[in-house]
Amino acid sequence: MNDKGTDWNYHEFKVYLLLYAANADFELKEEEKQKILSKATWEEYKHIHKVFEKDSDFERIEKILSFRDQFFPTEEEIGKLLTDVSELFETDDDYNTNERNFFVMLKKFLRK
After folding, report:
1. Cα 33 vs. chain centroid, distance in angstroms?
2. Angle formed by the axes of helices 75-90 and 97-110, to 10°?
3. What pLDDT score was predicted for residue 91?
């Protein structure tokens, strides 16, 4: 697995994006972590989380945008990802303003 993310597969990228979404309110809650772990192995999660923590917010956005066309070229694929993010936000029963704002931003990024 490449630390820069350039060789990530869809699954690894999705873990990264879900980590970014879970941190939209500046706090990774246990429920959100468990939801992400349901989509990854512990080793994958640890590795991607380590990369995520090293990245600045700008680098995180750049990584997301760099994979947009590769992993989400159609509206259907974008819709599936947005559903996953929405479900993540709802895991802790606290879909707050920061998460809503992040969701709006993510939709704009993914839809160009």
Report:
1. 12
2. 170
3. 86
Q: What total of structural domains would you count in the chain?
A: 1
> Confidence class of residue 10 from pLDDT cuts 50, 70 and 90?
confident
For residues 43 and 96, the model is more confident at 43
Decide if 5 is inside a domain: no
How far apart CA 19 and CA 36 sit, in angstroms, is 7
Task: State the Cα–Cα distance between residues 22 and 29, nearest whole angstrom.
Answer: 8
- Between 30 and 94, residue with greater pLDDT: 30
Q: Which domain holds residue 53?
A: 10-110
Give the model's pLDDT for residue 60. Answer: 92
33 burial (CB, 10 Å; 0-12 / 13-18 / 19+) is: middle
Percent composition of the chain: helix, strand, coil (DSSP 3-state, to 5) = 75, 0, 25
Query: Looking at the domain assignment, is residue 91 inside a domain?
Result: yes
- Does residue 92 lie within any of the structural domains? yes
